[in-house]
Amino acid sequence: MLVIRNAAFIEVMKDSFSTILINFIKQAKAGDLKTSMYPKTWEDLRLRVSFGMGAPARVPWIAFVTPEMEVSRGFYPVYLYYKDQDMLVLAYGVSETEEYAETWPLEVTSSAVSIESFFDTKVPRYGDSFVYKAYRVYIEDEGVVLHEVKENKEKSGIDLDSELHTLLEYYKQVVSKKIQDSSSSVSQGLFYMEKQLEDFIIHNWEHTEFGKRFDLIIEDGVPLSQQYRTDIGPIDILAKDKKTGSYVVIELKRNQTSDDTIGQATRYMGWIKEKKGDKNVSAIIVAGSYDQKLDYALKMVPNIEVYLYEVDFKLKMFKDK
User: Fold this and answer.
1) 159-174 burial string, b = 16+ CB within 10 Å, else e?
2) What residues contact residue 87 under an 8 Å CB cut-off, 6+ apart?
3) DSSP string spanning 81-101?
4) Residues 228/217, Cβ–Cβ less than 8 Å
């Protein structure tokens, strides 16, 4: 049995998702719509939580998405809490709001049961998503019990954490393969977004964190920093440290693995060291998220930094003069 007290939620949520999950269920039952206490990421994925907007939703959810996808547009692991049925589904989620060109592999869509088929009736939301695990929810005075339907077994916190981790790892492998496939919508969408990011950084250089520390390279009035040409390929952005004058290689983590990105950055650093005679050359990787592979690699390459970008869209009311 999992017993979670709200006072302990913030402290223990860092290590165990089962703690977050049980608190989520209790909060959904109470009709509380606040989500500010939930973490923004989990296992290198963006975490999104919703209990409804303005009024409690019939199916609150917790989704795990990559930077290039949204809950309204994409596919992703998601917990769906069907309150009326006292059922929690860990699902191969498929967006409802906007159809996405990519989805889960055939091995999932051809074998996993859709949520609507699982309930054998029309459900309020997300009927086209697929069941990975389904848990009967029992809320008792001393806590919450989750009983897995197929295995007919009560689940411990360790069980829940393990099952979620397995699905998240599978999801990351699936997305990684799609990113490496240049014809995939995931790859094309990510490439387009990060190409726009590169242009944005250059055009707004003086207003970014980079502009405070580095100068762009301009020769005879011609800007050379963006897509700086070398005989081993173009560097996304090449700049110079304002204080030391040393070169800084700035690479965007595009449709490639962390290993590829680190390798590419160090390769360009080696080229600058040899061709420009700069022994203090450094590098910066700009990424949408920070994963464990990148973290381990950077422990061995101390002169590479990582910057994370966030996309922030704002709307302003137009007022005619």
Assistant:
1) bbbebbeebbebbbeb
2) 81, 119, 134, 135, 136, 137, 149
3) EEGGGTEEEEEEEE-SSS--S
4) yes
Bridge partners (DSSP) of residue 134 are 89
**pTM, full prediction:** 0.58
User: Can you give the pLDDT of all 321 residues of the chain as single tens digits?
Assistant: 343 333 333 344 456 899 999 999 999 999 999 998 999 899 888 899 999 988 999 999 999 998 778 888 889 999 999 999 999 999 999 998 877 777 898 999 999 999 999 999 999 989 999 999 999 999 887 789 999 999 999 999 999 999 999 999 999 888 865 544 444 444 444 444 555 778 888 888 998 889 999 999 988 788 899 999 999 999 999 999 999 999 999 998 765 567 778 888 999 999 999 999 999 999 999 876 666 777 788 888 889 998 877 655 455 565 554
Domains located in the chain, CATH noted: 6-180 (3.30.920.90), 185-308 (3.40.1350.10)
Helix (H/G/I), strand (E/B), else coil: 145: strand
DSSP 8-class letter at 246: -
Q: Report residue 108: phi and psi, to 5°.
A: -90, -55
Burial of 142 (0-12, 13-18, 19+ CB in 10 A): exposed
Q: What angle do CA 164, 170, 174 make, to 5 degrees?
A: 140
Helices (H), 252-302: 258-276, 292-300
Q: In what order do the strands lie in the sheet with 45-50?
A: 41-42, 45-50, 61-65, 75-82, 87-94, 130-140, 143-148, 153-154
